[in-house]
Amino acid sequence: MKRLNQLNILRFIAAILIVIYHYGKETFPFTVEPFVRIPTGGNYLVSLFFVLSGFVIVYVYYPQAADGINWKRFMVKRVSRFWPLYIVTILMILPFRWGVPPHTFTGLVLSLLMIQAWTPPYPVAFNGPSWAMSVFVFIYAVFPFVLSWMRRQGLANHWLFNLPDPETLQALMPVILWNPLLQLNSFLIGAYAGMYYHERGMHNPVDQKRNLAQLAVGLLGWGVFVFIRGDLQRQTSLNLLYSNGLIAPLYCWIIYSLARDRSRIAAFLQRPWLVKLGDLSFSIYLLQSPLDTIYKYFVQERLEILLPYPWIGQVHFYLYALGLLAAAYFSRHWFEIPAQKFLRRKLIPTMNQ
Fold first, then answer.
1. Domain span holding position 24
2. For residues 111 and 130, is the Cβ–Cβ distance under 8 A?
C-alpha cells in the first residue's frame, strides 16, 4: 500500500511547536505580537499526534480488519518504534530529578511500565512529555478490537469539556489532560476519518481545485484558531480544553484533504528530506526534556560566562533546538532503527522488517 508521505510533515510541525511551547516562549520572536500567540496553550498539539496516528493506522490496517489483526504482532511493531528511546530518555533524566515529587520510586516504576498517565500526579514523572507514550500504548492495545467494531458499525465520538467553574476545572485537570481514556477520542476521530478515506476518498476521482480549496480553508482555520483561542478563552466564560478532541475535526479536515491531494504541494511534501523530518518527530518529542535539562546543567551557565552579552539569553533556545535536532537525527538512525529491528526480530522472528 502506498505511503501517505505528504502527511509526515504534520508530525514534524507539531513536534517543533510543542518544543517552542515548552522551552521557547521567552525567546524572540515568540515574545512579541503576533508570534506570542503561537506557543501558548500548546497541549492541543499533542492531540494532532493522536488524530494523525488514528488516520494513518486505519489507512494501513483497515483491509486486514475483516480477517482480524494479530494483536501481538501489531503491538510489537508499533511499540518498538519508540520504546527503546523512551527507556533511554528516562535514564538520561533520572540523575537530575530523582527524589523530588513526582520523580520518585513510584513514578519511576509507573513510567517504566508505561502506565504513568493513569495515575496523577505521576503522568509527568521524569520525562514529562512521555505521558503521551503511555496513551499510545493504551490506544495500540485496544485498536485491533476497536477497528473490527468500527468496520462493522462505524464510529464517531467526540468529548468536549465546558467547565465554567475554575475550581472544578483545576481539580479535574490532571485527569482531563493525561488520562488515556480521555485522549482516546482524538485517536478515534482520526481513525473514523481514515475509515471514511478508505471507503469514499481513496478511490474516487479528485477535483484538485476543490480539494486544494478545502485544504486552504483547513489550514486557514488552524491559523485563525492559533491566533484567537487565547482571546476566546479570556472573553467568554467557557473553559474549553482543546487537547481533548475539540479541535480534532479540524485536524481531520486538513489530514483528509492532504491525503487526497495530487498536486505539486503533495509532490513537494513527499520529498525525502521532508519525509525524514517527519520521521524525527517521536525522537524530538521524547528527547526535548532530557536535552533541555542537560543543556541547562552543562552548557547554559558556562556559555553566559564565556559570552557575557545581553543577547546571550535569546540564543540559548536556538542552540538547544539545533542540538535537539542533531540528537534526534543521530538517535533515529544510529539507535532507534537498529533497536527497533532487533526487537522485532527477537519477539516475532517471522516479522518482515
1. 5-347
2. yes
